Amino acid sequence: MEQSALNFYETSPETKKIVDSITFEKIEAAAKELESILHRTPTIKSAWLSQLIEGDVFLKLENLQITGSFKPRGAYICMKNLTDDEKKRGVITMSAGNHAQGVAYQAQRMGIAATVVMPETTPIAKVERARSYGASIVLHGQTVIDARDFALQLMKKNNYALIHPFDDPNIIIGQASVGIEMLSDVPNLDILLIPIGGGGLASGVGIVAKQLNPSIQIIGVQSLYCPSTAEILFPNSLQIGTRKESQTIAEGIAIKFPGRINLSILRNVLDDMLIVNEAMIENAMEALIINNKIVAEGAGAAGVAAILSGKDIFKGKRVGTIICGGNVDSRILSSLLMRGLVHEGRLVRLKIEISDNPGILGHLSQIIGKAGGNIFEISHQRFFNKTMIKMGYVDAVIETRDANHAQQVCRALNEGGHPTQIMEDSF
Question: 123 and 144 in contact (C-beta within 8 Å)?
Fold first, then answer.
């Protein structure tokens, strides 16, 4: 990050005054008030992750919160503190999805008109959920920055009150209630991993964690796609992943510019940061579904991605992380699970050479079935190949137990007189 940008984040007297106003007492009061408004989400011990690090891993399940993320916490505290005139004028915000839903939900509860500006790239599921809570949705631009700039234009034009996604003391106070609950459930954590986008959650929970357990180590987690906070505070952060992609499944933490208030707090509460890449986040999402039956979006799985990819760092420790959201597009989730089967060798594509005779497909099915495979998809190609007129190919997608079993099915077909190869794109 350029020096001019770094200078922008130097803590000014005004920012310091705002930071000093975010007290533990205010956070406790907000957490108490939210008890009757939102879910007190559970903190569970994950047996498979605990076994992996030979320690204890605890997951705070904010994916089970109303609207599917922690965002309604800060949204409520922020809107509760608006003046009657501000409430009457209506509110506006910008968001890649979860904050939009949090604001829309609380605005509907409180009878406040809400306008939400979202990037055009926002997953459809998040857009429709925000709309379902009665907010007026405006899709603009490709990034949250584009959406932010347009939202500020609309705010000035229509005299709306701005509900910032993270750079606001009341937002931070509300998000901090996650920490009150989690540290009440597991007060003696050694390490707390927190996904960081704009920094609202991490700064709020960080204040709480250091107050309740001064010896705790707080580690922020960002994606390699957008490690904005790490570049400023920890330029030598451990990059567990090294391949940077042009897009991310963790759009909830893809914030290019963290909040000034948030960063000022994070300077004091963060001990380190870890950077994970897309493959690691996808692996974590899949593993959570398979092993814990937990649906997490990309941002929500970032902490687990860090544990899976850097397990030696956490060996023998009591580790906690926040599954901060579960709003993942169903199409993406479906693709993720199917790709996981391919990577594990449980779904393979075979190219099988056959003679073009009656009953040949039935014979193939018998061989595959006897070998314990399950035909997922099959396509018989007679014309689009360079073989003899009486020969052809079958492209078959087969479900197997694992990569070794896939090889056994392939051998059975070869021994049955059908030359077969596993296509390279299978695993």
Answer: no
Whether 249 and 278 have beta carbons less than 8 Å apart is answered as yes
SS3 355: strand
163 closest CA partner among 277, 79, 264: 79
Q: Distance from CA of residue 266 to its chain's centroid?
A: 20
Q: Does residue 242 carry a pLDDT above 70?
A: no
Domains assigned to the chain: 3-69+174-338 (3.40.50.1100), 71-169 (3.40.50.1100), 344-422 (3.30.70.260)
DSSP 57-76: EEEEEGGGSGGGBSHHHHHH
List Cα–Cα distances, 89 to 113, 148, 168, 314, 411, in angstroms: 8, 19, 19, 49, 71
Sheet holding 161-162, edge to edge: 136-139, 114-118, 91-94, 161-162
The label of the residue with tokens 């001990």 reads 271
Amino acid 427: pLDDT: 47
**pTM for the structure as a whole:** 0.87
Q: How many CA atoms lie within 13 A of 75 on its CB side?
A: 30
User: In terms of Cα–Cα distance, which of 147, 178, 203 is closest to 322?
Assistant: 178
Phi-psi sector, 360: left (phi>0), alpha (psi -120 to 50), beta? alpha
Give the integer Cα–Cα distance in Å for 423 and 427.
8
Residue 102 has pLDDT above 90, yes or no: yes
Place of tokens 């959406």: 147
Q: Which tokens sit at 180?
A: 């009150």
Distance between CA atoms of residues 25 and 19, nearest Å: 14
65 contacts: CB under 8 Å, gap ≥ 6: 38, 39, 41, 72, 73
- Show the tokens assigned to 197: 């986008």
SS3 content of the chain, % helix, strand, coil (to 5): 50, 20, 35
Express each pLDDT in 360-382 by its tens digit: 888 888 999 999 999 888 887 65
Distances (CA, A) of 54 to 140, 148, 201, 315, 357: 47, 44, 28, 6, 57
Report the SS3 class of residue 354.
strand
Both structure tokens of 103: 């604001």
Residue 87 reports pLDDT greater than 90: yes
**Rounded (10°) CA dihedral 234, 240, 243, 247:** -70
- DSSP at 304: H
Tell me the mean pLDDT in the region 122-141: 89
